[in-house]
Design a protein that fits this description.
Structural class: alpha+beta
Number of domains: 2
Largest sheet: 6 strands, antiparallel
Number of strands: 8
Number of helices: 12
Oligomer: single chain
Strand order of the largest sheet: 3-4-5-6-7-8
Strand content: 5-15%
CATH class of the largest domain: Alpha Beta
Radius of gyration: 21 Å
Order of helices and strands: HHEEHEEEEHEEHHHHHHHH
CATH superfamily of the largest domain: SMI1/KNR4-like
Helix content: 40-55%
Shape: globular
């Protein structure tokens, strides 16, 4: 990332990067960097204008959502951001991570240099610093304590730790641990935190949609879990259920029901800070193209 681009970012937001973070970004020679085994994307050669400047555009979106004075310097292609502070507001040089699905911000590494040396914090089981609450407002964790890790025998959030372990089992396709996966997901279904419950419902739906080792596929079960997630007003579950009705998987094919579900999911998705990036239009939701496909199919059936 060249110095002119960094200055343009600082001028735009009337702020400044911490000197160490600024020097790190200037020295970057690759757009993609691995921190431990996690790939992060820092910039794009095709940035041609202020609006297309990765940091300016996504920092603007982030600040509108969280109302916090941080710069977004990288993303992982999954909707998560790496953040550094505006040194005119806070001299903190730590690298933070905004976890999109959880709506939380945590410490990722004590500095960019630490991250480069694979000194990544156990952020999935550490406490959050900021989060978006149920009223879509930014909440500060007044009880945050630096580096609370379960591996140190100190108190941590057991449900986040459980979810992190279950994610690993599922993502790494450790089918020999399928019983552990199912029992853990069933435990999260009783969580008082909607984010854990909804994640468990959607994961169970995925498991039964395709099967998982000794767990046979069961499309009816997959749909039943989606229905429960839809009751929680989860727009991703609505979109998945719309796809089931479109294809007739686990339910009788119903294009009108598919359209109705996806229209609601699309409307709800407009509250997501990434919807304009996905759709390419700030006024649109995340499922515009899929809506057109369903509408065309309905017309073809007439």
């Amino acid at each position: 990332m060249d110095e002119d681009k960094i200055k343009a970012i600082e001028d735009h937001f009337k702020g400044a990067f911490h000197k160490e973070n600024r020097d790190f970004l200037i020295k970057l020679t690759h757009n993609e960097i691995l921190f431990s085994d996690e790939p992060w994307f820092f910039s794009y050669d095709e940035d041609l204008s202020e609006y297309e400047n990765f940091v300016i555009r996504w920092t603007r979106d982030f600040r509108n959502e969280f109302n916090l004075n941080y710069f977004v310097i990288a993303d992982n292609g999954l909707g998560d951001y790496l953040l550094v502070s505006d040194s005119q507001v806070n001299e903190d040089k730590r690298l933070l991570i905004m976890l999109h699905e959880m709506g939380q911000i945590k410490v990722y590494a004590n500095s960019l240099e630490n991250a480069l040396n694979s000194e990544i914090r156990e952020y999935m089981v550490e406490d959050w610093i900021y989060r978006i609450n149920s009223e879509s407002h930014t909440e500060i964790n007044d009880n945050y304590e630096e580096g609370i890790l379960s591996k140190d025998g100190q108190e941590s959030d057991p449900e986040y730790e459980l979810r992190f372990n279950l994610m690993n089992i599922y993502d790494e396709e450790e089918t020999d641990r399928s019983s552990e996966l199912l029992s853990g997901l069933e435990e999260l279904l009783n969580s008082n935190e909607p984010i854990h419950k909804i994640w468990a419902l959607r994961t169970l739906s995925k498991i039964y949609l395709k099967g998982f080792g000794p767990i046979p596929l069961n499309h009816s079960k997959a749909v039943s879990y989606l229905l429960r997630a839809v009751e929680e007003n989860d727009y991703m579950a609505m979109a998945d259920l719309a796809a089931a009705y479109f294809a007739g998987i686990g339910v009788e094919r119903d294009l009108n029901q598919s359209l109705s579900l996806l229209e609601k999911a699309n409307q709800l998705s407009k509250n997501n800070m990434f919807s304009d990036i996905i759709s390419g239009d700030k006024s649109k939701g995340m499922f515009e193209e899929l809506l057109e496909i369903i509408k065309k199919e309905i017309e073809n059936q007439k």
